[in-house]
Write a structure and sequence with these properties.
Layout lengths: L13 H13 L6 E2 L3 H5 L3 H13 L3 E5 L3 E5 L1 H14 L5 E8 L3 E7 L3 E7 L1 H4 L1 H7 L4 H4 L2 H20 L8 E5 L2 E5 L4 E2 L10 H18 L1 E2 L8 E4 L2 E4 L6 E2 L5 H19 L9 H9 L3 H8 L2
Antiparallel strand pairs: 1-3, 2-3, 4-5, 5-6, 6-8, 7-8, 9-11, 10-13, 11-12
Helix pairs in contact: 1-3, 1-4, 9-10, 10-11
Bound molecules: adenosine-5'-triphosphate and magnesium ion.
Adenosine-5'-triphosphate binds next to strand 4, strand 5 and strand 6.
């Protein structure tokens, strides 16, 4: 797991950030940024650079490789530190707390400004790093930057989707985005996977979830990773989160993905509440989707 850099931020000085952002810049051109390039990219004196490198290496914000030449690159902690610094400068965040959740492809922390926030660092390229390399999924141009690039794209994507959906759909309010990180409203609630609904609440909660999915569809998106792990439930309703893989409704697979999302949700309710989940005719629902009549699905949901 990547360490929480927030605890190390206070020890870092402006010049350390100059070095880190210089390397961030250099990583656009090569996977390992050559030592000779550092004065140009970081605008620091060569003497200071040696000292800054040591400080940043000690804090595991940088990695060094010496094969044909000596080069440096950011670790995820280094990239986290740069994003966090940006949020602090913009006064988006004044404080970072403990972990809220560690997902397959992200680390989420509590954060604070004038309201409770959640800070999500995307890790997409990191967890799949080896596979991605093997599959050569990335073009020669951006392969050297693959993990930073993939994670940043995922964060940009998720932020864009949240901005489109909020407030018509019940999603966390987007607050800010930088590099591979997003800041959003912190949701109080319990994940649907952990909730224990009373028998008389089951249908109502299922309806709320399906209605949010319908609202998202009307606003132009299919979540595409719906499950009981990406829904919060609280006394005032449900919130659907974790949107980086959402697809626009005009995407060729959008209806297939919507159908899978609905199946995932219905499947969860049937498994967990076999005697209270409504007897939904999944075939009718699927047919309505395949026939490209989302209105029919909506009627079905609002039965
Ligand atoms: N806005 C938020 N407020 C409070 N907690 C959050 C918020 N967003 C995420 N979390 C917590 O962090 C965990 C991980 O977040 P999220 O589901 O967005 O990413 P992920 O789990 O990495 O994605 P995946 O579902 O692909 O594994 C969630 O399960 C949740 O507990
Ligand atoms: Mg998730």
């Amino acid at each position: 797991m990547v360490q929480n850099v927030a605890t190390r931020m206070a020890e870092l000085e402006d010049e350390d950030f100059h070095l880190l952002s210089g390397i961030d810049h250099g990583m656009r051109f090569s996977r390992w940024v050559a030592e000779e390039k550092l004065p140009e990219f970081s605008r620091l004196d060569p003497g200071d650079i040696v000292y800054r490198i040591d400080r940043c290496m000690d804090r595991e914000l940088l990695e060094r490789k010496t094969i044909q030449y000596t080069g440096y690159r950011l670790t995820f902690e280094g990239y986290d530190a740069l994003a966090l610094r940006t949020f602090a400068e913009r006064e988006t965040i004044v404080d970072v707390g403990g972990p809220l959740g560690v997902g397959k492809e992200s680390d989420v922390y509590e954060a604070r400004s004038f309201q409770p926030l959640a800070l999500k660092y995307h890790r997409e390229g990191y967890t799949n790093f080896r596979e991605v390399q093997k599959e050569r999924e990335y073009t020669a141009n951006n392969r050297h930057r693959s993990w930073l690039y993939t994670a940043r794209k995922a964060a940009e994507r998720e932020y864009e989707v949240l901005e489109t959906l909020y407030p018509d759909v019940s999603v966390p309010r987007p607050v800010d985005q930088n590099r591979h990180a997003i800041v959003m409203e912190r949701i109080d609630g319990v994940e649907l996977s952990r909730a224990k609904l009373e028998p008389n609440q089951v249908i109502g909660v299922l309806d709320l979830v399906l209605n949010e999915m319908a609202a998202a569809y009307r606003a132009g998106y299919v979540h595409a990773d719906m499950s009981e792990y990406n829904v919060f439930i609280a006394t005032d309703g449900v919130t659907i989160f974790d949107w980086p893989q959402a697809v626009p409704t005009d995407h060729e697979n959008s209806e297939e993905l919507l159908r899978r999302d609905i199946e995932n949700v219905l499947g969860h309710f049937h498994r967990k509440y076999p005697s209270n989940a409504p007897d939904v005719d999944e075939t009718a629902l699927k047919a309505a989707l395949v026939e490209d009549t989302f209105e029919a699905v909506e009627q079905f949901i609002n039965r």
